[in-house]
Write a structure and sequence with these properties.
11 strands, elongated, two-stranded antiparallel ribbon, alpha/beta, 700 residues, Rossmann fold, seven-stranded mixed beta sheet
């Protein structure tokens, strides 16, 4: 057994604590990626086991059964049926919830029938006393023909026992729990005779599931001759499910007892308040208000520190490194570009912190249930709320989450309107502009005016999403009807380790994903801003010094004027001036125009672009990004560029605009057509331009 690397598949229904078990086993030894060829997330981790063994844990997507109805469930089935897959497990761990054991065990019995060594984990053991539940573990192990690990991921109970079971997985019985072939004895007998060396239940799943079994040898398993009409297959699947639940019920009648007199549960009482038709919404918006207030109040101190640190670092690099092009690149391009990303880590981390707490506590499911009543009025279902809420992190995974919406019309509408939801990429733009144009005052002595503005922008984005959905629902002539079903998980205190890992993963993804784009664009911008075509750029210094208008300038004023003239005549300056006639009615100058162009790659690039532009030729200035933007004035009128009308115009432009190439790409992938992303781009950009134009013209 020494030095053995055991491959483990972690499987379970949603909300059983599977992720908590994964985090307990692997800690920070995790890697997140996608399955080859598809965008379903794959999480893997490693751990050291007793007896000098090691294990690789694959956390499979949550699934209710092996009767696939979504891409996530297809991933689980295809892996478990393909022994040639490099990730095929030596042992499967099925995680169940002690309070929902009957429903969770359906999946367990199906996996057990695949003749894979399987460990049954019953999680949330700490809730047994609260619910008045007792379990006869030896009896359950005998009936289910497996080992059972009774654990509490919250209190870290039973984890060592689970690890030892993984080490001893070869001792596990691979005998099925029940004889599923009794649903149609003649049919299964013919299957057994035709493929005597194959698992009978595996053959049944290959026949009934619409999954790409690319690695199954078709010469060995050719089940085409055993195909049945879909109606007949559905009928047999229903019989199989009924048979499994009858078996589970019979076992639990003896192996589990529930004494409601001993239960101390208050979930029902709390649900009546949190899902109330009036108080539910009041509480939800109060929580949102608290989140946005905290994002501004708590993160302001680390943000100011980071901003000043990068300004000082840029000045230090300019003054202490050898003069030359490389030093200019570092001090004026790379450092400001990195600073434009790092400065927003506190706010992004706080946003993900609150989202993680809401999800871990079980409250987010109540929000989805609550908002379903509103969604239906706009042509959507409650399932559309999950992508819309996920969109507060990023529109790309949110659009991927629409795969769980079976109705194509609802799914298409959700895909098209999700980018209106304020994502974390907009947060850097919002926060810097709000800090510039909205006074930091207290309303009623409690509320921060800047936090209220941020919440208003989130509400505006959500309102735009559901209004657009209503319009699309009237326009699109696609028939279909679905019903919304959601599981209400138990309330629980968030597990600190899970929250920390989630915040670190999401923040890391933001920094690395946005950081690579912003850094690359910062370097390109530095080059475009530092060089220009022809004599107009090369003769700037002589032109300024020979101009009598500037003869009384000090050396510092000369340098500033030369830098300004060079920037205006550089490649990027010419690009900005070219689009200035189009954007000047919105209150934007050519520098803001450049930021609008570059931010199409990613919205958050807007701030990094301005940080780079304002640093070119001025790296020894220790002013922060915010101070430089605040000090920017119109050369002709002397008015501030980032005044209140311009700031509001920009905030509204980014609230509605499709400034994200990645979102367009994923829309094309999910709809399999360029038609919808083009419509998305034209409509959102046109709406953003019109709203920003109206706002500026009214306020100026």
């Amino acid at each position: 057994m020494s030095n053995q690397n055991i491959k483990v598949a972690l499987i379970g229904n949603p909300n059983t604590g599977k992720t908590s078990v994964f985090n307990l086993l692997t800690g920070l030894n995790q890697q997140v990626g996608n399955y080859p060829g598809i965008t379903v997330e794959k999480k893997m981790g490693s751990l050291n086991l007793p007896l000098n063994c090691k294990a690789t844990i694959l956390d499979l997507p949550g699934t209710y059964s092996l009767n696939a109805s979504s891409l996530d469930e297809n991933v689980v089935i295809e892996l478990l049926l393909n022994k040639n897959d490099l990730l095929f497990p030596d042992v499967a761990i099925v995680v169940t919830d002690v309070e929902n054991l009957k429903r969770n065990l359906l999946l367990f019995t199906q996996i057990k029938d695949l003749e894979i060594p399987t460990i049954l984990v019953i999680n949330m053991a700490d809730r047994m006393d609260v619910k008045g539940i007792t379990l006869d573990i030896p009896f359950l192990e005998k009936q289910f023909k497996t080992r059972i690990a009774l654990i509490s991921s919250r209190k870290k109970i039973g984890i060592d026992n689970l690890k030892m079971m993984i080490v001893e997985y070869q001792k596990l019985s691979t005998q099925p729990c029940l004889n599923a072939s009794s649903i149609d004895v003649p049919y299964f007998d013919s299957l057994r005779k035709a493929f005597p060396s194959q698992s009978l239940y595996k053959l049944w799943l290959v026949i009934t599931q619409d999954v790409n079994f690319s690695k199954v040898d078709k010469n060995v398993v050719d089940t085409n001759n055993f195909a049945k009409p879909n109606s007949e297959l559905k009928r047999l699947q229903q019989k199989e499910t009924i048979k499994r639940y009858q078996f589970i019920n019979d076992v639990l009648k003896t192996g589990r007892t529930v004494d409601t007199a001993k239960a101390t549960d208050f979930q029902g009482k709390l649900d009546r308040i949190l899902t109330h038709k009036i108080w539910g919404y009041v509480i939800f918006f109060a929580i949102l208000l608290l989140i946005f207030q905290s994002i501004f109040d708590w993160s302001s101190y680390p943000m100011d520190f980071i901003d000043e640190s990068f300004a000082n670092l840029s000045a230090w690099a300019s003054n202490n490194l050898p003069a030359g092009v490389l030093t200019d690149l570092i001090s004026q391009g790379i450092i400001p570009g990195i600073g434009g990303v790092v400065i927003f880590i506190p706010q992004i981390a706080f946003l993900f912190l609150f989202i993680s707490i809401l999800e871990e506590s079980g409250y987010m499911s109540r929000v989805v249930f609550l908002m379903d009543k509103i969604m239906r009025k706009f042509g959507l279902s409650g399932k559309s709320v999950v992508p819309l809420i996920s969109g507060t992190a990023c529109a790309i995974p949110a659009i991927m989450a629409t795969r769980n919406i079976e109705n194509w019309k609802e799914r298409l509408i959700t895909i098209l309107v999700t980018p209106f939801t304020t994502c974390s990429a907009r947060l850097p733009v919002y926060t810097i502009l709000i800090a510039l144009v909205i006074p930091k005052t207290r309303i009623f002595g409690i509320f921060n005016s800047q936090g209220l503005t941020l919440m208003f922008l989130y509400v505006v984005g959500f309102a735009a999403a559901i209004t657009s959905a209503h319009i699309l629902n009237k326009i699109l002539k696609i028939k279909g009807k679905t019903f919304f079903v959601i599981e209400m998980p138990n309330y629980k205190l968030p597990i600190f380790k899970n929250v920390v890992i989630n915040v670190l993963e999401k923040t890391k993804a933001f920094v690395l994903g946005a950081g690579k784009i912003i850094l690359a664009i910062s370097i390109i911008l530095w080059f475009l801003a530092s060089y220009g075509p022809g004599a107009a750029f090369n003769d700037v210094e002589n032109s300024v010094k020979s101009n009598p208008q500037f003869e009384n300038f000090s050396d510092e004023e000369y340098d500033s004027k030369i830098s300004s003239e060079k920037l205006e005549n550089s490649y990027i300056g010419l690009m900005g001036h070219a689009i200035e006639p189009v954007i000047s009615p919105l209150g934007y100058d050519w520098k803001i125009g450049i930021a609008l162009i570059t931010s199409f790659a990613a919205r958050e690039v807007f701030v990094g672009t301005l940080a780079t532009i304002y640093s070119v030729g001025d790296a020894d200035n220790e002013d922060t990004i915010k101070n430089k933007m605040d000090a920017e004035v119109d050369a002709e009128t002397g008015k501030k560029i980032f005044d209140f009308p311009t700031g509001v115009s920009l905030l509204l432009f980014y609230a509605f605009a499709m400034q994200c190439a990645g979102t367009l790409a994923i829309t094309k992938k999910e709809t399999n057509s360029w038609k919808w992303p083009v419509i998305q781009l034209v409509f959102m950009t046109g709406l953003a331009y019109c709203v920003a134009l109206i706002a500026y013209q009214i306020l100026k």
